[in-house]
Design goal:
The complex is a heterodimer of chains A (356) and B (564).
Chain A lengths: L1 H22 L18 E7 L7 H11 L1 E7 L3 H10 L8 E6 L3 H6 L3 E2 L23 E13 H6 L20 E4 L5 H14 L3 H10 L3 E3 L2 H8 L11 E5 L7 E2 L2 E2 L1 E3 L5 E10 L5 H12 L1 H11 L2 E2 L8 H6 L11 H19 L2
Parallel strand pairs in A: 1-2, 1-3, 6-7, 6-8
Antiparallel strand pairs in A: 3-12, 4-12, 5-8, 5-11, 5-12, 5-13, 9-10
Helix pairs in contact in A: 7-12
Chain B lengths: L8 H6 L2 H39 E2 L2 E2 L1 H8 L2 H34 L5 H8 L1 H4 L2 H12 L14 H25 L4 H8 L4 H29 L3 H7 L6 H12 L2 H26 L20 H25 L1 E2 L2 E2 L2 H4 L14 H31 L5 H13 L2 H4 L2 H11 L13 H24 L2 H9 L4 H30 L2 H6 L7 H9 L4 H29 L7
Antiparallel strand pairs in B: 1-2, 3-4
Helix pairs in contact in B: 2-13, 2-16, 2-19, 3-13, 4-8, 4-10, 4-14, 5-25, 7-11, 7-14, 8-10, 8-11, 8-20, 9-10, 10-13, 10-20, 12-13, 12-19, 13-17, 14-25, 16-17, 16-20, 16-22, 20-22, 21-22, 22-25, 24-25
Classes of the chains: A alpha/beta (356), B mainly alpha (564).
Chain lengths: 356, 564
């Protein structure tokens, strides 16, 4: 009896171990397969943010054409990415970086993270060059505006007009209707804080107090706001005004019309840059990656892959974007040098204002 | 310490004792060296690297700056909130977990194995997804909206306890299961009421396990990050969210270092306290009792377990229901889409491939955690000779708990600034992911194994040794039969931790080999109803995978004990 129980348990154990090992491919994580496709190719490492994504075909075309093997290393959001680059500047984790935006660019420049490289820019890209970047350290790749979005169906059902301006949000008619990610934990949140600073100057804390007094809700990240709390998000929340992007209405299209729209008077332009890292192991490869990001193929793929607009005006936008995602004619702006000088104070004041 | 041995033995044993003592110490050192080196390289070095960046300004250490940071009123508020929310959540988790541990591990209840496996599910669910489920329940228009808990501190406590109650059930349940029922029966035969038996016999015997579980849960809660941000709506800050802000955004490394030091000090004090409370008064002998049929007196336990099931089940049910909705109708569309890269190419690899990655990484993380955790548990539970040796063991025990209490952001950034040097650039290694996960799982493994190993009467080992068994044979014949079940439980735990781990993984995982939580985060971070639906479906698949693995472990446990 004892023996049979023992035997049974041994068999079961054996089976379980076998099953797990088969499932795990005996593991040591990934073991084989690694790099076999690009064996012999010269590696180039792209450090970028978590939202980086490009179609496989484009990447393999690039590798075939250049003889490079592109290794992508995601490193958090724009802020985390920038700070990681700053901390590892003496011993960089890659050759080229993409995803530092105009709210963080001056910190990266001041810390000497990037090396000079001036590629030939596609038509339309000069307009997005970083002001004050005399040494050609950063190259604009994509752009997008952070704007408030409203649920038009929600307002239509109530025969109410949606808000249009920043000031509208503090009116009692729009009480408890706004949700937005915080400036300290989210880069669109930071962009909105800068919007209010551009609009209200020194008085921005008063505006924020009114905003919170009118029931504005803050969340950690964009998804907590859009997906969980916004009435048109996946979680079918109960807030009809949310902070998102000018491209977002292109994703809420059904039956030929979008149920949401961006408030084009509340936008802040974000530009994302690429640059060759100082001290890169493979600077030539890094330059080729920057060129690749500016190529027509990648520029045309940006909207569908990363939800941003290309800096190039040579490529066509997807139909839904052209139709449902009009771009703001004017955006609120804060000088990058000002951002660099005051960001920490602004964030600390903001943080004290909103949290206990 | 009296050693039972044959007549005349004391004199005969006297001589070799010195050499044997040295041998013992050497053996212990050899056992401890691998885990200590691993933790040194992957925890101590990175954390010290970040602390050094913050503390050393222009080549000079500046302690005044640390004191200045710690004197800020904001820091006091943050510290206070961290302490009380984590304490409240720990208390709630213990309160809810104890009855369930009893019911699911001591009573012969139908489906108890399935329930045990399912109750581990919250532990692996991504915070951001559970956050959405909690919010749907708690918001004004939701079914629990009348409670007015939205964005309250209570919601944070509820969320923290939700994620961690399974730790209490597992750790305490495992100990309860192998608790000798005879002292309780004897007390009852002598006229003690069930309540008296519980209070005077059962509870003291379970104390080490309860304290173990509670200390782990407290550390998890105090360093909880996503829950606080998601459910508290930024109104509440904890030490962990402050360090995140200071490091990833403000790059104020000095203040971050000050807070990290504070964390280290508080965690060390806590660990010392819990070690004191955990100390077992005399080795209790352990057998495995058969679960007994449900009696009438069990109803309060059953009632409390039912409450727990509703509490854990409601958010999960919300999640499952959400994953089955497409365009307002019931559908399996979200699940069918998991084989694709999401609408508008939200993903680089389909979720199915991410699941394979996750399992692969989890296999590695599990054996690493078991290997390291097993060694640590062995080292810290061997009976010490002398106070100094006991101290060393106690310190080692606490040392391996530290990673739970220290900010993942500090460790993650520390990897970057320190691991690039040396013969190999470890920052690029694909093995970093399972290693980091194993370090997170390690304390759970140790805390599951240590109470059981400590409960083994050392005289059994001495008896084996005096009968001529070597250390290895003693281990196999004395320790292994008793520790076999907890070992499996620990393996399941480590596997689950690895499957669900997000913080460190998102920091280290390579783009082309994401794990499921990383993919879920990506999906839910992109607009488009399909991506949201897929995120929920992927969460359900992750939960189901975990439950299946746990169920397999439960099955394995049948008949395995007593056969040695």
């Amino acid at each position: 009896m004892v023996l049979s129980t023992h035997a049974r348990s041994a068999v079961l154990t054996g089976l379980a171990v076998l099953a797990t090992s088969v499932l795990g491919g005996c593991s040591l994580t990934g073991s084989s397969s690694e790099d076999e496709a690009s064996a012999g190719n010269d590696p180039v490492v792209l450090v970028t943010h978590d939202s980086f994504s490009l179609p496989d075909e484009l990447v393999s075309d690039f590798e075939e054409r250049t003889g490079l093997s592109l290794e992508v290393r995601p490193s958090g959001d724009a802020g985390t990415l920038t700070n990681k680059l700053v901390l590892t500047k003496d011993d960089p984790t890659g050759d080229v970086a993409f995803g530092v935006d105009n709210t963080f660019a001056s910190r990266a420049l001041a810390e000497g993270v990037f090396a000079s490289y001036a590629p030939e820019l596609p038509e339309g890209a000069e307009a997005h060059e970083l002001p004050g970047d005399e040494d050609d350290l950063l190259t604009p790749v994509d752009t997008g505006a952070v704007c408030l979005n409203v649920d038009d169906t929600w307002y239509a059902e109530r025969d109410q007009a949606p808000p249009r301006t920043l000031e509208d949000l503090t009116r009692p008619a729009y009480r408890d209707q706004l949700v937005l990610p915080g400036a300290a934990t989210s880069s669109p949140g930071m962009a909105f804080l800068l919007t209010t600073i551009a609009r209200f100057g020194e008085e921005w804390p008063d505006y924020w107090r009114e905003l919170l007094g009118n029931g504005a809700r803050l969340t950690g990240g964009w998804s907590d706001a859009y997906q969980a709390e916004f009435t048109q998000g996946g979680g079918k929340g109960d807030r009809p005004i949310v902070l998102s992007y000018d491209s977002s209405p292109a994703f809420t299209v059904s039956g030929g019309t979008s149920s949401t729209s961006a408030l084009l008077d509340t936008c802040f332009e974000q530009v994302e840059y690429a640059g060759v890292l100082a001290g890169a192991d493979n600077p030539e490869g890094a330059e080729q990656v920057v060129d690749f990001l500016l190529s027509d193929e990648v520029q045309a793929a940006l909207p569908e892959s990363m939800y941003v607009f290309p800096v190039s005006s040579q490529v066509e936008l997807p139909a839904a974007w052209a139709k449902h995602a009009p771009r703001p004619e004017q955006t609120w702006e804060v000088d990058p040098a000002d951002i660099d000088a005051n960001r920490d104070d602004w964030l600390r004041d903001w943080n004290d204002l909103v949290s206990r | 310490m009296r050693v039972p041995s044959g007549p005349g033995a004391p004199r005969g044993r006297q001589a070799p004792r010195g050499r044997a003592g040295l041998g013992r110490l050497l053996t212990l050192a050899a056992l401890a060296v691998v885990p200590v080196l691993a933790l040194g390289l992957f925890f101590v070095v990175p954390v010290s690297g970040m602390l050094a960046r913050g503390l050393v300004v222009d080549g000079v250490v500046d302690p005044g700056a640390v004191l200045e940071v710690l004197g800020r009123p904001r820091v006091h508020r943050v510290l206070w909130f961290t302490a009380w929310s984590a304490s409240a959540a720990t208390a709630l988790a213990v309160l809810l977990g104890l009855p369930a541990a009893y019911v699911l591990y001591r009573l012969d209840l139908p489906l108890r194995r399935l329930l045990r496996a399912l109750l581990l599910v919250p532990f692996v669910l991504p915070t951001v997804v559970v956050g959405v489920a909690f919010k749907q329940l708690l918001r004004e228009s939701g079914p629990l909206g009348f409670l007015g808990l939205e964005e309250s501190a209570v919601a944070i406590v509820l969320g923290l306890a939700f994620f961690n109650v399974s730790v209490v059930i597992r750790v305490v349940g495992g100990a309860w299961e192998s608790l000798d029922p005879r002292p309780g029966e004897a007390a009852a035969a002598l006229g003690a009421s069930p309540r008296q038996v519980f209070r005077t016999v059962t509870l003291p015997a379970l104390r080490p396990a309860i304290v173990s579980a509670a200390s782990v849960v407290f550390l998890f809660c105090a360093s909880g990050f996503g829950v606080v941000l998601t459910l508290g709506g930024l109104r509440w800050s904890t030490v962990e969210t402050e360090i995140y802000l200071l490091t990833t955004n403000l790059l104020d490394l000095q203040a971050a270092a000050a807070l990290s030091i504070l964390q280290l000090v508080v965690v060390s004090v806590l660990l010392a306290l819990s070690a004191r409370l955990r100390a077992v008064p005399g080795g209790a002998s352990r057998v495995v009792a058969r679960p007994r049929p449900v009696r009438r007196g069990d109803w309060p336990w059953l009632g409390a377990t039912a409450v727990l099931l509703v509490y854990v089940g409601a958010p999960i049910a919300t999640l499952v229901a959400g994953s089955l909705r497409v365009d307002g109708a019931w559908s399996l569309g979200n699940y069918r889409a998991l084989g694709t890269a999401g609408s508008e190419q939200a993903l680089l690899v389909p979720v199915t491939e991410a699941l394979a990655n996750s399992v692969r990484v989890a296999v590695d993380a599990t054996w690493m955690a078991l290997l390291l955790g097993g060694l640590v548990a062995l080292v810290v539970t061997r009976r010490s000779r002398g106070r100094a040796e006991r101290r060393v063991r106690g310190a080692l025990d606490a040392f391996f708990m530290l990673p739970l209490g220290v900010s993942a952001v500090t460790v993650g950034f520390g990897f970057l600034v320190t691991l690039g040097r040396g013969p190999v650039d470890l920052r690029d290694s694909a093995l970093l992911v399972p290693i980091a996960q194993a370090l997170v799982a390690l304390p759970l493994v140790v805390r599951t194994l240590a109470p059981v190993l400590a409960g083994i009467d050392d005289r059994q080992r001495q008896a084996a040794a005096s009968l001529g068994a070597g250390p290895l044979r003693t281990l196999v014949t004395v320790d292994l039969p008793v520790v076999w079940k907890p070992l499996l439980a620990a393996a399941g735990f480590a596997f689950a931790v690895s499957l669900g781990e997000f913080g460190a993984t998102s920091f280290l995982a390579r783009e082309d080999r994401p794990t499921v939580p990383v993919v879920i985060f990506r999906l839910i971070g992109h607009p488009g109803a399909m991506n949201y639906g897929m995120a929920l479906a992927a969460s359900v698949v992750l939960a189901a995978t975990t439950a299946l693995v746990m169920l397999a472990v439960e099955r394995l446990r049948v008949g395995s004990v007593g056969a040695f």
